[in-house]
Each structure stands twice: as structure tokens, then as C-alpha cells.
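Changelog note: in this version the structure field was regenerated for every chain. One regenerated record is shown below for reference.
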Amino acid sequence: MNPARFFQRLSARERRTVTLAVIVVVTAVGALRVLPAISRWAGSAAQRRDAAQETLGRARAVIAEREATRESLSVHAARLVSVAPRVFGGSTPAEAGAQLASLVGGFADQRRVRIGRQDVQTDSGSGLFTRLTLRVEAESDITGLTSWLAQLEQNDKLLSIRSLAVEAPEPAAPAAQPERLRAVVTIGAWATITDTTRAR
């Protein structure tokens, strides 16, 4: 039977029903073909969105890390500038140690403290700064020693008293005579060495 003649013989209501049925069937077939593609596209879009968010998060973390590093470098640079005048300097650790011994000896002369012996040790394995250690044998009365030690800790250089041992060499001295005390002091300081090849 010719479909066209069959369709023409139908009433208007029957033709509407058939047309609606055809539309429903075509729509259903199209949906079966289109929906999987739409589903795949939606999944791919979600993956792209998640990847973009992850990339954005990493970028923000890198920027924050760079900002923190920049701020940290600025803080360290400011600290170095403020500390530089308070440490000793020299082309070699021995030269810096000699400056430390000279400063300590000069303070001793001002306080009438007699220096018997000075031994300097250096440690260049502390990074940017070289650690200086000075062991001093000194002798004076209680006033001279205390004022000398106070001057060492309160001067412009970064000095620290690491150890102190005091004894009275003449405990039976006359009362009218000021008691002489003998002290062994270990003093710590820091230095920057300009010639790093000679410091090794």
C-alpha cells in the first residue's frame, strides 16, 4: 500500500495522531543518539573545570611562595645591614680574631685589668659569619673585673661572655689591700671574612 494514499484516507484526527506518534519516535531515537554524546561532553567539561581549578590552585601557591620568599629575603637583608657594624671584619679569620683581642685588651686597659694571656679560635663553618672565640686570663680587683665584664657585654660589638671562672690567688692578703682576683674568661663574637678563599 502506498503510504501517501493511506495517510490521505485518514481523518484529520487520525492524521494528527499518526504525526504525533512519528514525532515521538523520531525524538526518542534522536535522544538515544544525542544523550550519550551530551553525557560525554558534560563529563569532559567537568574534568576540564577540575583541571583548571587545580592549575589555578598551583599557580596561587607558587605566587604565595614567591611572595613569602621575597619577603623573607628582604627581612634577612635588613637584618644583615643592621648587624654588619656589630661584627668584626677582615680578609682572614686570624685578622678578625686580632681585632677582637685588641678590643678586649683596650677595654682591660681602661678598667685597669691586667691581661696575662689571650688565645683566639675561629670557626669558619658557620655559614656567612665566622665564629670567634677568645679565651682570656685576666687579673684585677673586684671593681675592675666587674666593670670590665660589663663593658664587654654592653659595647657596640656583638660580644658574649660564654664562661667565667674567678679565683683569689692570695686569700690571706692584708685587709687594707684590695683583693686581687684572677679570672679566666671565654668571649664569643662574630666576623665577616672578605677573602673566602683564604678563610678555608
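Spot check on this record: The longest helix spans residues 12-83. The chain has a mean pLDDT of 74.
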